[in-house]
Amino acid sequence: QVQLVESGGGLVQAGGSLRLSCAASGRTFSTYAMGWFRQAPGKDREFVTAINWSGSRTYYADSVKGRFTISRDNAKNTVYLQMNSLKPDDTAVYYCAADSALRVPTSTPKDYDYWGQGTQVTVSS
Which of 12, 14, 17, 62 is most open to solvent, judged by the fewest CB atoms within 10 Å of its CB? Predict the structure, then answer.
């Protein structure tokens, strides 16, 4: 029902900024909670941030609080991840995900029904 495509990944130096976008298809996008996850080689998929259907509630992993900001524009069927003060430990493939359930966003990957292909973010020191 929903297809997600991430973009905006790339190489950036430590301390720099990057803005990721997740473009969604499907008219039900505006009813879904959305999340960003990341996965580094050899590690589990890690919760980064999530936002509820309206954008009025956001949640962040402790590791990114104060540095990352999630937002959404339902009119454009797009969710964004603004990443500032990037660190080498932020290096990972970043995935956009959608949760169709009527609940506040969760940090559990299994709760999300749709996933994008992922976009690589590499932070050099």
Answer: 62
Structure tokens at 82: 């603004």
SS3 28: helix
- The torsion angle over the Cα atoms of residues 58, 61, 63 and 69, rounded to 10 degrees, is -20
Residue type, 121: V
Q: Are 1 and 28 in contact (CB under 8 A)?
A: yes
- Under 8 Å between Cβ of 22 and 33: no
> 102-121, pLDDT tens digit by residue?
888 999 999 999 999 999 99
The first and second tokens of residue 95, run together, are 């995935």
Beta-carbon contacts of 26 under 8 Å, excluding residues fewer than 6 positions away, are 1, 2, 3, 77
Residue-level pLDDT at 107: 95
Instruction: Dihedral sign for Cα 85, 71, 80, 33, please.
Output: positive
